[in-house]
């Protein structure tokens, strides 16, 4: 009887460990597949097939909803096809997942620039993350100049 009880106890321990770690194994497998879709999206993006890239990044996100880079790259793909609303939503999510995602801030700044909203906060934040990014320094300075010009034009229109 003791032997039978011992065997039963060992099997229960094994079953418990299996049940405990099953979600980890499943999530790891999904993350691996999500990375495959992410890489496929990058391939499509490099070939300027932005709609296919969006689909691949979407698959990656469905498999791993915390995949910040997939949100960032899908946002950039939306930016390339000038779907600013979706791009902004994805870049916001990328920043929510990873508040130090320099590229998400840069791309959000680029959306502002392309839509003639010369807000500079995103470029400034990207520079706080990486002070050596000379391209962002140039974009920031250009956005500042455009913003000043925009304000001057508004003042001139009010005075006419």
Which descriptors would you attach to this protein?
160 residues; mainly alpha; Serine Threonine Protein Phosphatase 5, Tetratricopeptide repeat; 2 domains; 7 helices; 84% helix; elongated
Question: Can you put this structure into words, describing what you see?
Answer:
The longest helix has 45 residues, at 2-46. Residues 24-28 have low confidence and may be disordered. Helices cover 84% and strands 0% of the residues. Helix 1 packs parallel to helix 3 (68-80), helix 3 (68-80) runs parallel beside helix 5 (102-114) and helix 6 (121-129) packs antiparallel against helix 7. It is mainly α. The protein starts with a helix and ends with a helix. It has 2 domains: 1-99, Serine Threonine Protein Phosphatase 5, Tetratricopeptide repeat (Alpha Horseshoe); 101-160, no CATH class. It contains 7 helices and no strands. It has helices at residues 2-46, 50-63, 68-80, 84-97, 102-114, 121-129, 134-159.
Order of helices and strands: HHHHHHH
CATH architecture of the largest domain: Alpha Horseshoe
* Chain-averaged pLDDT: 86
In the CATH hierarchy, what is the class of the largest domain?
A: Mainly Alpha
Structural class, by secondary structure, is mainly alpha
The helical percent reads: over 70%
CATH topology description of the largest domain: Serine Threonine Protein Phosphatase 5, Tetratricopeptide repeat
Point out poorly predicted stretches. 24-28
The description of the largest β-sheet is: none
Number of helices: 7
DSSP summary, beta strand count? 0
Q: Give the CATH H-level superfamily of the largest domain.
A: Tetratricopeptide repeat domain
**Large-scale geometry:** elongated
> In angstroms, what separates the terminal alpha carbons?
101 Å
**Share in β-strands:** under 5%
Q: Domains counted in the coordinates: how many?
A: 2
Computed Rg: 24 Å
